[in-house]
Predict the 3D structure of the following.
Amino acid sequence: MFCTPALAAAAQSSAMAGQPWLNPKLPPEERARAALAAMTLDEKLRLVFGYSDQAMTDLAKVPEDIVPADLKTYVVTHQVKGSAGFVPGIPRLGIPDQTQTDASIGVRNSFIPSTALPSSLATAASFDPEVSRAGGAMIGAEARATGHNTMLSGGVNLAREPRNGRNFEYTGEDPLLAGTMAGALIDGIQSNHIVSTIKHYAVNDQETQRTSLDVTISAEAMRQSDLLAFELAMEKGKPGSVMCSYNLINGRWGCENDYLLNKVLKHDWGFKGFVMSDWGAVHSTADAANDGLDQFTGFCCVTDKPWFGPNVLKAALQSGAIAQRRLDDMAERVLWALFAKGAVDEPVKTAPIDYAANGRISQKAAEESLVLLKNDGDLLPLRNVKSVAVIGGNADKGVLAGGGSSDVTPVGGAIMVKDHTYLPSAPLTELKRELPRARITYDTGADAAAAAALAAKSDVAVVFVTQHDSEGYDGSLTLADNQDALVAAVAKANPRTVVVIESGGAVYMPWLDQVPAVVEAFYPGIRGGAAIARALTGKVNPSGHLPISFPATPDQLAHPDLPGLGQPNETPAQITYDEGAAIGYKWYDVKGYRPLFAFGHGLSYTRFALSPPTARSDGRAIRVTFSMRNVGKRAGKGVAQVYVAPAEWKKAGWEAPRRLGAFAKADLKPGQIKTIEVTVDPRLLATYEAAGNNWHIRAGDYRLTVSEASDAQSQGASVNLPDKVWSAATSGE
Ligand code: BGC
């Protein structure tokens, strides 16, 4: 009988109609179980082995006893060209392919242009989860519209190591801020009925020797720092998948780690989704499967070891090295995520993208994230300037973006300078738009003397400095290419000098005392130039606050030497995180160091006044109430930060004298006042005790202060808390 593909599909879908796993009214657990029960062994095996985009060209060379011919053909014909990875679905049962795209800043597909958000660290500086959620919703919609139903997005590794080349992909140094912002991003992405992937689990806090570094850290320190950021993000964002990391943690690979995957993630946090490996992060078959890995992802080339290849897993099942129920659990977890997040009920379809509207979302995120670090004499916003010297940073071309798997192909085209991506939003062009009557002249900054001469004959000089960071290596905090000397020379020639920094994270500023105004823009995304120009000219009132501390000097770093630096890749290396959970401002507090700029710092063109707080315990959490008033002359957004301090932090078992307990951002007109109530999560008052797998609040007085930065003076309130112990195992979703 002659049967067209459309007829075949219709016949198939009518055969499937009525199958319980396709009934959206049933809970995802039930649907996953029913689908699993209908699957053959080969179908289960399909769901747990993924292919990278390179496989498209290399797969033909892979022997057929590893990947059978029909599967090869399926992968090559169904994968979204240019994306990160692919896991074949089961059309017979209506289970979709998993089409995977990086990453937290936008859809990365070498053939499809997309809208780049500001870096995740920049968005964290907004201190506004709504900004993060809106960005996530936008990039998730672009993922859908480009045929991807899985985003590899939700980077939440803490900025423990200020030089980490991927800090720009993460959300800062504090577990509460990082977890809240990453959770909101994931929530936004998944509002598009697709799966998002929190990563890189866990303690993958430096890039140097990332695939061979063994991190030694206590369970207590992990649960109070890196893992707490994951825990909070997972509660808020409920990602369908978790990506395990390249490194070893206490001697066990991230993707073969019973403690992290089975005990903490699946047992204690009740995670029902699946653990996918980072690309190339798997080292075994049975150990990885039994220690918690559910899906090998990113199989690439003939040279790759197919640890979860269909025939390899079959052999492990036959020998009993992996139990059938474990394979079933692996497949069921993948199915659960696809059902729970809507990927089965709302299959992705390619559709046109409104890049202009999405660009506005990215611009808003940048405008909420720019951090005004210094503004002596209110040099900013620029007013009545007749001439501006714009210097350096390729400000005539665009704004810098980070490298690696977050480096999206921007709509409008990337501008490559020395192999670094600049997004096409030139601050120079945008400043000219904002200041149509001023004479604005650009100098590349290549010759400091020439730049200084231009600055000397201008009303104001704006120097752009850039620091490129990327996946794969750690950066330096010292600006490259003599940019420090450039700033110093320009500042000497014109005391009215503004510095705009585009960096992945913190940088040193040896010239800080010589310049009155500094703006930290991080990597500000596809409309970053417009956001910067609008902030410099006052159309936008800066409201970002630092999500990381800026060290003043190298001797303030917890680990001045990066282990394995300069060695060939994959050289075994080891680091002991003996600072434990004392990361960032907590480390500075313990040591009594004064950073260059403190966590939470950020100025505005207006001023805010915070009332003394009142605090009460509701038996579970602490509720803190205070008011914020705009006491300046412009509308603006203030960020209030609640810090908690036990009367005696060592006696309370804390890693440091203070922790961020809550934060809130308020939009206020001049004179306007708002009452704000926030809640401090009990885990932020407690210590983790490994012996009993408990959280424990020690009885005593706890002081709560509200301020606009971690180093600001503030008034406080005290609460007395009774001793309290509870299990660290929660029920999950
Ligand atoms: C990165 C991941 C990324 C994956 C797929 C890896 O190198 O570490 O973050 O999702 O590649 O591109």
